Amino acid sequence: MGMVETVGLVLHPRRDSKVAIDTIVEWARDRGVTVYGLPDEIGRIDCSAVAVDADTLVECADLLVSLGGDGTMLRTMRLIAGRPTPILGVNLGKLGFLAEIDVDDLPSALSFIDNHEYTVEPRMAVRAILPGDQSVTAFNDIALVRIPGDGLSAVAISVEGHPFVRYAADAVIVATPTGSTAYSFSAGGPIVSPTVEGFLVVPAAAHSAFNRALVLSADEQVILEVLPTSGRLAVEVDGAIGAHLCAGDRLTVTAIRALAWVVRLGTTSFYERARRKLRVNDSAEIG
Fold it and tell me: Which of 31, 187, 246, 250 has its CA 20 to 30 A from that of 284?
């Protein structure tokens, strides 16, 4: 018997996933595998997947299939966070960093997974404790972002209780290795291998002489304190606003190792995806 008895689907909210779902359902039917999906997602598509709530999907699925792009993959990772269930990412559109295959590759990929012919790549997350003890978790980044018209993001950074630097910037970003190719990259941060156990603190458009990123160990705790000179800030969690902060508020951030597991079939490497997605070119001086 194969390892997959139930497949859980997570869909992009707008992209057409009908062909991909039909392919998965047909593969599952031939093997007696049950396909689950969230009611508000599969309800807009004519398919035979079984509608279940999020808790049941997480509890019962042997494999989660994310149909969309990197945003859908991040949502799937947050949904399954803390469980060893593997996630297969399927591109529906632009090339992403997290998705492993295209729709045409689905039947063979599912069979490889069913036959245990795959590896998994652990993905780290960062977790922040907000004022009021609210907890948020991100697989890409948590950013303290200035609100237009409210002044700069003025934030003091302390590592393991030791004050280090005060940034005045458009945003201060705490990014995982996964998130190093997202907002952090656009702010000038380094590309970090997903196998590195660490995280980044990166200022975006820093208005200060020191504008460098920090690379921290996954075992270190960082505190971000909003300074009296700061404007009101939005806390963005993987790009979505999770809260707002004012002067005097503090954010405590820690890394969590291996909070999600992404399927890899060996078809492409992280560096191949990075070169294509980021359009990395060699120096013009190299002949």
Answer: 187
